[in-house]
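INSTRUCTION: Work out how this chain folds

Fields: amino acid sequence; protein backbone structure tokens

Chain under study, with its fold:
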Amino acid sequence: MKPFVTIVLVLCIYLSGSDSAGLMKKSVIFPTKTATSFVKLNAAAFSDLTAFTVCLRAASEENRDYTLFSYAVHRSNNELLIWQKTNAQLDLYLGTVVGSFFLPKMDAWLRHICVSWESQKGEITAWVNGRRSLRKVGGLDRVVKSGGQFFLGQEQDSVGGDFDIKQSFVGEVTDVNMWDRVLKPNEIELISQGCYNFGGNIIDWGSTTFTTGGNVKIEDNNDCTF
């Protein structure tokens, strides 16, 4: 009798509109400009924030304004928004613009971006590939309200919706993490190399569940540099 061989095929399917597990070693690709393509990140519950660090890696060749990271709550669509402008300016919104940084222009090369803020001194810092910007002051004594929704690919003009095709992200994004504190410089340097094993305590790219909509591609990503 010939041996019976069982072949098991494991197929990972990311269904639009359904929650999926984390994105460890995965990249999200938004191929085209749309008002329907998004990734919603189901972040851990948190209290109102007086500090945070958001980090991600992204690449885009779009020559226009677009969103990198959108958090909206009731009555504040831009409660926390990281916004890329055509002139290479990166804006942080905490309801309104509280800090702007002129950084190297986005292009086809994946870059690691972090933005940190704390309320007591209003200190805002941007990082690109582990290098720190000058510090700026904004959002003094403010809090970031809890109870909202986090989106990649679209800027929310109401909580979870009212997307505008002209503000959508086209490109690749990965390693999105968020902490409820300002990370130390050595932590950001390590994270920037793509090899940091501990994700954020609010958003953890490796374990936070997510929902996709529209034309979103999820691909393997093994970009650790050592």
In short: DSSP finds one helix and 16 strands in the chain. The longest helix spans residues 185-192. The CA atoms of residues 71 and 149 lie 6 Å apart. Helices lie at 185-192.
